[in-house]
Amino acid sequence: MMKKDKATLAYLEKLVGPQGLEMVKRLSTNELTDQQIAAETDSELNIVRRTLSTLYEHRLAFYTLERDKETGWMLYRWRVEFEDIERHLADDAQKLVYKLEKWLDGEQNTVYYTCDNHCSRYTFDMASGSACGYEFVCPVCKQSLHHDDTSKLTDTMQGIINELRTDAQAIFYPENVSIFELAQTEQE
């Protein structure tokens, strides 16, 4: 059965959502169809299917196909295996730390400008007018653009990344998920 430590549960919740996590917690180790799983875990069928699909994509769920002798339909019998979840968690955590480091590198090596309303952030080329013609005036609120000091943010992020290097799984703790989401948003 699944290890129920904080990082593992937070990781699974990030993958399958709160309803999917509740389904997984109540799931037996038997090989069952999606309808049997829905009945066993008292979950909606669409949640069961979405959860199984996500777990399958992450190699945490597997299925076998067999033909129903009465109807002739193909049946998918699912089993969820968490024996290897620690490795999955560590691999995904390492990827997340790498993304955070890339985001931090971008923050440290780019000079940004913003207005007092923080409508948006602009690189020097944009703010100065050479790329967009803003000439240090916010195109949204028409206030002057000034240097956006991100040193406190980057110092904080560097400290968090250092902590994550020693306990990479901590990125999946609920209190740290927003940090990763920030890095994801900034990279896109």
Instruction: Specify the structural class.
Output: mainly alpha
Number of separate structural domains: 2
Average pLDDT figure: 85
Number of helices: 7
- Radius of gyration from the CA trace? 23 Å
Q: Name the overall outline.
A: elongated
User: Span from first to last CA?
Assistant: 37 Å
The H-and-E topology, N to C, reads as HHHEEHEEHEHH
How would you describe this structure to a colleague?
The protein is mostly helical. Helices cover 52% and strands 11% of the residues. It has seven helices and five strands. It has helices at 6-26, 34-41, 45-57, 85-108, 124-128, 151-166, 177-187; strands at residues 61-67, 74-80, 112-114, 122-123, 146-147. It has a three-stranded antiparallel sheet. Helix 1 (6-26) packs across helix 2 (34-41) and helix 4 crosses helix 7. 20% of the residues are buried.
Spell out the blueprint of helices and strands.
Layout lengths: L5 H21 L7 H8 L3 H13 L3 E7 L6 E7 L4 H24 L3 E3 L7 E2 H5 L17 E2 L3 H16 L10 H11 L1
Antiparallel strand pairs: 1-2, 3-4, 3-5
